[in-house]
Every structure is written in structure tokens, then in C-alpha cells.
Amino acid sequence: MKHRTPKKTLLSLMLLAAFGGAVVADAVAYDARSADRGGRKNSSKPEARYPDATREEPKAKGSSKAQGKLSKLFKAYEKEDNEAETLTLAKELLADSNANEYDKAMAAQLGAQAAYNLDDMPTAKQLLQQAVDLNALDNNGHYQSLLMLAQLQLQDEEFEPGMANLDRYLAETKSSKPEDLIQKGQALYQMEKFNDAIPVLEKAIAATPEPKDSWYSLLLASLIGADRPADAVKIAEQMAAKAPGDKKTQLNLVATYQQADQFDKAAATLEKLRAAGQLTEEKEYRQLYVTYANMDGKEKEVISVVNEGLQKGALKPDYQTQLALAQAYYYSEQIPQAIDAWQKAAPLAPNGDTYLNLARVFWQEGRIPEAKTAARAALEKGIKKPEDAKKIIALP
């Protein structure tokens, strides 16, 4: 069965890159092969998935007049890669006046699965709604259809009907299964109702002895979305402690520290990765030097990280990198190195502001001809206050 991811992304770009996006629950597929086929049950009755459901299972059975078509539909469904025929037969049975509610509900369910496999979500949702509305399937089939309908609606950002169907599913089944609670937490996260998602996710995690890492990631993202960075840090630290050698988990912790303005801890975690040779990508080196740039008195660290990244080829000598290097050199009073970096950054800048800063530094150093040249370049590239450049050009 194909798996779909939600269209919505919810965090800042930095956090989205770190966490790899939101956790996505796969749409449920109910295996109709084990269902009661018009009164002719399989040798072993399937386990009741919802023993506490409030719904009384209907006694409806298949019509003898439609038995041949229903049997043909089942055979088509059981074949591999036969979705198109299954969907066609399901629609024919739904339109058959000899078919009763059970026949049609079963046809709608099988047709929905075929449509889902064909990536025809509108048809899948339509048929699932029919299966639920006909109210003729056993509880397993009925509630799995309802859950799948809710999931597809939520994935398509149809939040109001999707949440209504999910809440109905949970209320009628009386389910407290962690997997079902995660469904609701995921839905609330998609709806950006982070504060509502958090207790649901916490309950799901507490209800299972071995929660999935993806559940913790979803809780972590919800805590960040709810602007609870301190609580998010606790979760991220727990995840990192469980997987000290996993770079992605450690980078999640770094992003969470940064969100909580705990730049010293973010830098320390990144430095451990750096010492272990695990900083290999441009974004990772950039994350480290930007972290140091947000801390007072860490100019030498910025310089060290940038130069190492450039030497290893992990960092490109682009505008942002050269600008960071220039500023770090300047504020650590290494003026010649700062000028060199600014001279490399200025031609790459989107406007003339960097040339203007270079002109000011040349002027402070008493290098007036070079200051004037940089000021003219600033005017050519465009700046908000051209009078500042003109004052330097007018110097005697």
C-alpha cells in the first residue's frame, strides 16, 4: 500500500531540517479477506478489535441475489495489482438494486481500498463515507473504515470533518490504545493545536513500555510549537541520552537548545560531534558557527569553525560564510584579516551595505583611497543611505 505524507509543514526551517518534518501516521488498511462474506464465514472468526465498542454489531448478511457479484468482487480484491478491476466491480455492486446494505457496505470498503492504492483519494474518501453511513459491517470493518476516513481527511487538511470522525472513532470504540491516541495527537499537531496535542501524546507515551522514537519527536515538536522550550529540552535530552551515537538525535537536541536560547549547551553538543568527526555537512558547520556568533566573546571559536569548514570543503566561501568570518575577525581586533574577508564578501552581497562597511573600516584605518573605492562600489551596488557613502567619497 502506498503511504502519503501530509502537505502541511509546521516548524521553523531550522527545526524542520533538524527533526525531518512531522511524524505521519499511515492510513489504516482493513483486511477484508477475513471478513464475513455474506454469511459464509472463514474457518476462524477474526479477533474483535473493539471489545468495548458502544455500537451493537448489525446482523445483516449478504443478499442471495447479489452473492455472485460479491464473490466476484472478493476474488478481484485478492489478486495482486488488480485495483482497477476491484474498483469497477465495487461500483457496479453499489449500483445494483438487488444488493442490500451489507453488500453495498462491503463493496464500498473494498472499493475504497482499491481507490487508495490507486492514489485516488477523493474516491477513497467517498466510498469510506458510504461504508460508514450504511452501518452494516461488523465492528472491525466499520471502525477501521471510519478511522481510515478520518486519516485521509486530516492528511488532505480537511480538519473539521477529519477530527470529528477521529473523535467519533475514539468515543465509540472506547479505545485507549497508544497507537490510537497518537492518531489524535498527530491530528492536533497538524491543526497547530499544540497545547491540546501535548497531553494526548504524553498519555500515549506513558501507556506503552517502549514508545517509538517518532512519538517522542512529535511530542518534542509540539512542545516547541507551544513555546515550551524548557519542557522540549527535557524530552530532547532524554532522546539524546538513549542514542548518544546517533547524529540526527544529537542535532535535534542542538536545535532544541537553540530554540531555548541555551547556546552554550548547543555549542557543547556540536563540539562533541565535531570532535568525533561527525560534522560533515555545510549546514552542520554553519549551525555551529552561527551558535557561537550568538554568544558573547566567542569570535575566536567562529573563526576556528569557519576556517576548518572551508579547509575541509564542508563550507563554501559564499557571502554568509565570508561575512561571518569578517565580523568575527573585526570584533576580535584582527583588522587585516577582517578586511580580507570583507573584500571577499562584498562582491557576493545582495546590495552595497557590505562595501559600505568595508569603506568605513578602511577610513578608520586611515586608508582613504581604498575607503573611497569601496564607497563608490557601495553606491553602484545600491544602499539605503547613499549620503553615507558620499561623505566618505568627499573626504580630503
What can you see in these coordinates?
With 396 residues, this protein is mainly alpha-helical. Among the domains are: 31-38 and 53-172, Serine Threonine Protein Phosphatase 5, Tetratricopeptide repeat (Alpha Horseshoe); 349-396, no CATH class. Helix content is 65%, strand content 0%. The chain is built from 20 helices and no strands. The chain has helices at 13-19, 67-78, 83-94, 101-117, 121-134, 139-155, 159-173, 178-190, 194-206, 213-225, 229-242, 247-259, 263-275, 282-293, 299-312, 319-331, 335-345, 353-364, 368-381, 386-393. Helix 10 (213-225) runs antiparallel to helix 11. Residues 1-27 and 37-43 have low confidence and may be disordered.
How much is the radius of gyration in Å? 31 Å
N/C terminus separation: 76 Å
Strand content: under 5%
User: What's the CATH class of the domain at 31-38 and 53-172, please?
Assistant: Mainly Alpha
Shape: elongated
Kindly report the oligomeric state of this protein.
single chain
Biggest pleated sheet: none
The unreliable regions are 1-27, 37-43
Query: What is the CATH topology assignment of the domain at 31-38 and 53-172?
Result: Serine Threonine Protein Phosphatase 5, Tetratricopeptide repeat
